[in-house]
Design brief:
With about 650 residues, this protein is α/β, with parallel strands linked by helices. It is built from 17 helices and 22 strands. Helix 1 crosses helix 14, helix 8 packs across helix 10 (about 250-260) and helix 15 packs antiparallel against helix 16 (about 595-605).
Length: about 650
């Protein structure tokens, strides 16, 4: 490790090769070390091999969030990668908007991750990206979402993630808006609508069957697929989450390449891999198995000074890299130049390996598994890994774009459910008024100053990720329906701002992970306000089971519910000081939608407000002693 840092600090190739030698130890430490390369009898002259400055453009610093890493380390990685035309990945958790400036060297990450928690995902964040990466799973923690221990959730991190300081943050597996490959296709469509110039990729974990999943991802119009291996780690998670889990990227990558080639999908997508890559040989093996782009995590942190203390999850990193403590952050001495030197040393190592294969460019060897063989002393049957020999897909795919850019929002007027993600492409100050049945993601990722109005109904994901503006949905004029259902599931998912008024019922998981929007509906299904971290949610009608599960911030006002989640929230009478806020929201709902239900509540407000209960997280509010008549409110409440 010290040798690697000396090599990075001084761009010393001798020290770099010494680090590679010592890190290999005596026996094979990875699957790729059981493979041998068929070197050519006529190596290519080094002056004919593509320069390191081109090779590093294929490199990515893997997803490590601001929160897992200190602000100083996070920005140093972005500065390093941006200077050399490579890419850094924000990880899940957002970024500091202060880095969105016009500096000569870009300070934010060109790859911005979108995970199930939607922490820090705002319209500005999405529109700033060159690439948007949907995290389905983590290579080092397959089957688990991200997590950030409470010690690392400082006031800064909480502000950027629209959460509460000192609260553990968990990103569950993506079960809120991705239940199927069709749901994934919808999210890809959403992201391409809000930022048409960005490539959209999907991060998958290396596991048996990943090739089939990748084929579906390509059909869903992803531009790249990342196969993440089990090696490496994370700056936030406990050791129990990252040890003895997952499989090597070699297995997942080889399977993915084979399946995509067999199904004639390979030309439509770029393949990326990560997980313990450290040498030029590692890069070449990955390319031979199908990858065109390569991610580095631990290696670039070591270049910044990481001493592998294994204390990331404890917030006690002695080098100021994986901590939020100001006293430890002051110890950070890493420089972007160290990362740049490290990556150029690897790129020069790649050039040497290419020359031995008589190849001039990385493109020439992508998918050429016929240039690999199992070592003579290998006791493993590697035939499945090498089965794609001779099946390399032709043409350059490095910057592949899969599918057309979605059409902009239609002008005001009639709309049907073939029009999806309406509003995401609108700029500040624009407004649209529609009549009919809107498709999925109506109003997703709308920004401040955008106004959408719909007389009719909408499908799932209304207001997904909205960061501002307003969305109003009313029943069709003259509809006459009693208690109409006007929107589907997962309303205002991950919203960070804006106002949403729906004069009807909605489906399940309304306001899941809402972190700043104000939402008024007239009834909802199960899991209302699940994982909510901020904002205000009001229901003027009945709500289903498990309301408030995982809620750590924000406020909800309910009249009737089947069951609250007693581990997360409590119900209390509306405090006197909060009553004006509730009344103002009901009045605004009435003005915006013409709601008869809201009008009836306002007509006898003194009685109406007594029926409401304020729902607050137990984590941040000590509930008052229950009133005698409402002692059982946390269990169930009859219909009013």
């Amino acid at each position: 490790m010290r040798t690697a840092q000396k090599a990075a600090a001084g761009a010393d190739r001798d020290q770099f090769h010494e680090w590679l030698r010592t890190s290999r130890m005596d026996r094979p430490q990875s699957l790729r070390e059981l493979l041998v390369l068929h070197e050519s009898d006529s190596p290519a002259p080094m002056n004919e091999v593509e320069p390191a400055s081109e090779i590093v453009k294929r490199f990515v610093s893997t997803a490590m969030s601001l929160g897992a890493l200190s602000p100083e380390a996070h920005e140093a990685l972005a500065l390093a990668m941006n200077q050399i035309g490579a890419r850094s990945n924000s990880g899940e958790g957002g970024e500091d908007p202060d880095t969105y400036d016009d500096s000569s060297i870009r300070r934010d990450n060109s790859v911005k991750q979108v995970a199930s928690a939607r922490f820090g995902v705002t319209p500005a964040y999405l529109k700033r990206a060159d690439e948007l990466e949907i995290k389905i799973a983590q290579g080092s923690k397959p089957g688990e979402g991200g997590q950030l221990p409470s010690l690392k959730v400082t006031s800064l991190i909480a502000r950027l993630r629209h959460a509460q300081p000192g609260m553990q943050l968990i990103s569950p597996p993506p079960h809120h808006d991705i239940y199927s490959i069709e749901d994934l296709a919808q999210l890809i469509y959403d992201l391409k609508t809000v930022n048409p110039r960005a490539r959209v990729g999907v991060k998958l974990v290396a596991e048996s069957g990943v090739g089939t999943i990748a084929a579906g991802v390509v059909k869903a119009r992803a531009d790249y697929v990342l196969i993440s291996g089990h090696d490496g780690g994370t700056g936030a998670s406990p050791l129990s989450s990252i040890k003895n889990a997952g499989v090597p990227w070699e297995l997942g990558l080889a399977e993915t390449q084979q399946v995509l080639v067999a199904n004639r999908l390979r030309e439509r997508v770029s393949l990326r891999t990560d997980g313990g890559l450290r040498s030029g040989r590692d890069i070449v093996v990955a390319a031979l198995l199908g990858a065109e782009e390569f991610g580095f995590g631990t290696g670039v942190l070591v270049a910044l000074g990481c001493d592998m203390a294994r204390q990331c999850h404890l917030n006690t990193c002695p080098t100021g890299i994986a901590t939020q403590r100001e006293d430890l952050r002051a110890k950070f001495t890493g420089r972007p130049e160290h990362v740049i030197n490290h990556l150029f040393l690897i790129a020069e190592d790649v050039r040497e390996e290419l020359a031995r294969l008589a190849a001039r460019t990385v493109d020439e060897i992508v998918g050429r598994a016929d240039l690999l063989a199992a070592s003579a002393d290998s006791l493993l049957d590697l035939s499945l890994v090498l089965a794609c020999a001779g099946n390399a897909a032709p043409t350059r795919r490095l910057w592949a774009r899969n599918g057309e850019v979605p059409a902009p929002a239609p002008e005001s007027g009639l709309i049907d459910n073939s029009r999806r993600t309406v509003g995401a492409s609108l700029a500040r100050g624009e407004s649209r008024t529609y009549t009919g049945s809107a498709g999925q993601s109506f109003g997703a990722f709308v920004d401040a100053g955008v106004e959408l109005s719909l007389d009719g109904e909408a499908q799932d994901y209304v207001g997904k990720g909205m960061g501002g503006g307003s969305i109003v949905i009313r029943p069709p004029y003259g509809d006459g329906a009693i208690d109409p259902v006007l929107a589907g599931n997962t309303i205002a998912y991950g919203a960070t701002g804006g106002r949403l008024f729906i004069a009807g019922r909605v489906g399940e998981r309304c306001c899941v992970r809402n972190s700043g929007a104000t939402v008024v509906v007239e009834g909802a299904g199960d899991h209302f306000c699940e994982y909510m971290t901020g904002g205000v949610a009001v229901s003027l009608g009945s709500v289903g089971w498990n309301a408030g599960a995982g809620m750590t911030g924000g406020t909800a006002y309910l009249i009737d519910w089947r069951q609250l989640n007693p581990d997360s929230v409590v119900a209390r009478a509306v405090p006197t000081e909060d009553e004006p806020e509730l009344r103002a929201l009901v009045e605004e709902h009435h003005r915006s939608t013409g709601s008869e239900r809201a009008a009836a509540l306002l007509a006898d407000w003194a009685h109406s407000v007594s029926k409401f209960r304020q729902i607050v997280p137990v984590a941040i509010v000590q509930p008052p002693a229950p009133e005698p008549a409402t002692a059982q409110e946390n269990v169930a409440k009859p219909v009013v």
